[in-house]
Amino acid sequence: MKNSILIIISIAFISCQPKSEFKKMDFDTFEITVPENWNEIELKSIDSYVGGIQTSENDTLIFDIGAYSPDVSKNDLPLVFDKKSYAELNEKQKILLKKTKHLIVDSITGNIDFKNYLRQKSENVKIDCFKAKIITTRNKGFGTTGMYIDSLKGGDQNSNKTRFSFYGENLKEKTEKDFIKALKTIKLKKYCH
């Protein structure tokens, strides 16, 4: 009788435990803790290790580890367009642009304070044992959000550096918030431990 009561109490206790809202994804080189409903996607590359995550909001997050991984903090072109360059944008870009702080002018020459129209901002942080840049958008839903580490191995400009970038474009606000939180959980197993 005592065993039966103990079993019933144990089952009740286990079933009352809240399901974890997060899970660890292991990408060999690193692991990251993400929301439970995000899923790994496979991508192919020629000269680096790439992969990605599909979020519950249908946003795609891409990582790139290699010598030519892009520094996503350098995507910060100002949202200033002359009429010709504005006309070259596709309809989706024009719709997204309506929600941003941007400027359309007759000519890009002149007295424009381009800093007022930058797409993103960056912050220096520590991710595992590395200095990294976290990049967020100034206009929610428009621009690049992500992280960049200049060198996982290799030092000076003449050496073979291994860079790491992890980013998404035009992310929904919830995805951006969850992604930044997830980036800060990265453990670089092959480099720090």
Low-confidence stretches: none
Distance between the termini: 50 Å
Alpha-carbon Rg, integer = 22 Å
Task: Figure out the total of helices.
Answer: 5
What is the residue-mean pLDDT, rounded to a whole number? 85
Binned strand content: 25-35%
- Structural shape: globular
Largest sheet: 7 strands, antiparallel
Share in helix = 10-25%
Structural class: alpha+beta
What is the chain-wise order of helices and strands? Answer: HEEEEEEHHEEEEEHH
Physical arrangement of strands within the biggest beta sheet:
3-4-5-11-10-9-8
Number of strands: 11
Structure commentary:
The chain is α+β, with helices and mostly antiparallel strands and 193 residues long. It is built from 5 helices and 11 strands, in the order αββββββααβββββαα. The strands form 3 sheets. It has a 7-stranded antiparallel β-sheet with strand order 3-4-5-11-10-9-8, covered by helices on one side. The protein has a two-stranded antiparallel sheet with strand order 1-2. The N and C termini lie far apart (50 Å).
